[in-house]
## 1
Amino acid sequence: MGNNKILLDPEGIKEIIKKTIRESIKDEFFKIRLELTPEISDEEMKEIKKKYKKPSKKVAYSEYLEI
């Protein structure tokens, strides 16, 4: 095991920090969105299905998560 050193210029360090902060903020916003999304009861779900019938097959928005 030697003395392995990695040399980074200030701009490289700045980009790494910016990327890390962006990822952290994105993760935290996702957690907040999950906490604020209300759960519905079975009765409410039945009312929704009765009122709106079958959902269309068109995708309006989708998001994939790595867990």
## 2
Amino acid sequence: MELNLYMQTTFLMKNNLSYIYGRTDLIQIFILALFLSPTLSAQNSTSYSIKSHAITLESERALIVVDPSLTFLYVAGSDFNGFDNIRGAKFKATIDGNFSAGGELLERQSTLSPFLTDFSRKSDRLPGWGRFKTLSSLTDTDIPLKVDVARATGFIEWSEKGDKSEAQGFNARLANEAINFGWSHSPILLNRYDIPYPSAKLGWGNTNLNFDLRAFQWIGNVRGPLGSTTEPLFNRIHGALASGKYSSESWGVAMLFGSAKEVSQDTSNINNISAISISGFTLLHNIRLLWEVAKSSTTEEGFSWQLGGEYTQDNIKIGVNHYVTQADLYGGNGGTEWSNAGIPLGIMTGGNSKSSVIYAEFRNILLPKWIILSEGGTLKSTQYDYDLKWVKANISRVIIEDWDLCGRVSFEYIIPVDNLSEGPSGWIIHMGIIHGIINP
């Protein structure tokens, strides 16, 4: 049974570098469920629902749930309109109390917001997704960018079972996902909203302590020798991470050290990049103070840092955050970069950036019905020549909690500080259904 799960999940975890693979990969998650169902036991049961999980496969040893991932939003701006359409499926599985697995396959056609249009035109990448096929002109800046892109994420994990059925002791994980480090609002080195990438982890942990060793592979930004498929078109970046964390209810501290080097035919002129980050939090009554300090081997200036605070009361959270990144924090100048598919990991606007943000959220964690978010802030980025302010807000109503499906109305407005700036500006409204916000 575990062999079938491993083979199918490993196949799932291969991240698509081209939109071409998206249409065929969307059916793999249902094939996975069909392959797993005979491996459960003779007493297995299968159920279907539109009020809870769409497909549930259950036996004495295993539980597998499959749900659709659907987003369909009508998009309107000051002089344009379109759609944001994401479709796919996701699954979660637990086996014998020690093994767990999950994954999601998505395909997206979308009319982008003014900010994402500008960023994607400058970088040829869509944050969180990577390289895309354009459905509109990349050079005509008077119209919004329309993209076609696909993404696959997944993991398989083994962990020791504690005396109280809590995961503790050693654990191992194979995944194609973005890794998150620290508790800050916008982690500087590793952020869960980055473009997913393959990694292998060996760790140990208990209620308060956690130690991890990881090996990973990022996609480079330089085309290598042409091969028989699209995979070898771009150089690879191989690296390793080591992290440790202590956390309690009142405070926590974590440290990360990582090193990476680009793999190419001629590595004599390519230096590796090393980075270190320390992150922490302190809880004082209902106020949580958050901080992070980071530095890499490629920056000659001081530390990059961020400081923030959150006030939480019942279902309401209000927070402020400010970060500063130094020049060359993420590498460059011909050396290895701390990036995946050409986008800096952590804060996507790269080094030599500053941002301040204030945000508020209403959410009932135990019984979510309404989710209300608002945010406003400023951003300066030398790499992308940004100097702007923004305001955005959205109201979501939960439709099916197990599907992570909500109805939503949202608004975003980008205001350039300088009226002569060529950066993004304008407003956009989204209306429709969206997935992935109940349990982000």
## 3
Amino acid sequence: MYTDPCTIALQTDNQLITMQEIKFNIYGENFYPNGFSRMDILSYIAATREDALATCKRLNPGFHVMGIWIDESEPEVVRMQPLR
């Protein structure tokens, strides 16, 4: 049986709870201490939009958020290739 890596299932007594985590893309401008800045898109997997923004701000305090959206793209599948 295939289990989506972004789905977490918890079982307590006779109850099954499923938590879905979503990939959020956060667009904005990253400001560095040396005065350099650049536009960037950072991606976070979180249960809610607010959790993704909180993680972004905690890990990147100099990042000015301009937009956020859900990434609905299909995950990339890495296939093994034989050595020639």
## 4
Amino acid sequence: MTDRPTDRPEDPPAPDPVPPGVAGIPNDPFTLEGILAQEAVRPVWYKRTWVLATGAVVAVVAASVLVDLPSSTTTATDTADQTAIMKQINTAIEGCSFAASETFTIYQGLHNHTLSTSNEALTPSLLRDDQTACSFTNSSIFDLSNVQGTGTPAGRQITQVVNTATLWATSDALGAIEDIQKLSTDPGNAAALSDLTKRQAALSEDRTVARGHVLTADRILNAHLPMPDLPALPHLDGT
């Protein structure tokens, strides 16, 4: 009988370490080799940069189109809006309207020699105040020129009233007042008399045009909006 060997066979030698990158052995993602070995991942189509950028542009355009879409306005709301704007116009122009009327009264008094001595002495300062009342240096006239109309058919008519009233005040009424200022000290000034004649015609025409726009808005709304506070000035003697 043979004795069993007492010595155990030697263990096989351990395999050599496999360098990173060999098939079957993952790379360490936190090493340079691991980073370089990673495969590039292509983004899905809806995450691509050009798709995202195009989507952002489309979203902006869509939002702007929605903002620009006209909104429906009821007749009652439209009428209330145009009434409020006409009140703004009249509040802004009332000082110039008074000034133009006063200046015409002064001219008639000077021309017909009906002013009292005290009133005649006040004429230069009164005419200066009237001139200021119809110029852009007056905050009310500046406010008038900045009154904003609405985009409805009636609103566009009232916007024309704003434009005409501004012209009435800052061009024709102001020009007439300046002519009368010259005539108050030089009654025979032919250039001033000639220009004053033209200004009177323009003031009357402006008034007619402004009122016509309000009447057109009235027909659109089936309403009666306030008329512009542009006085019917008398024809001046000697012009």
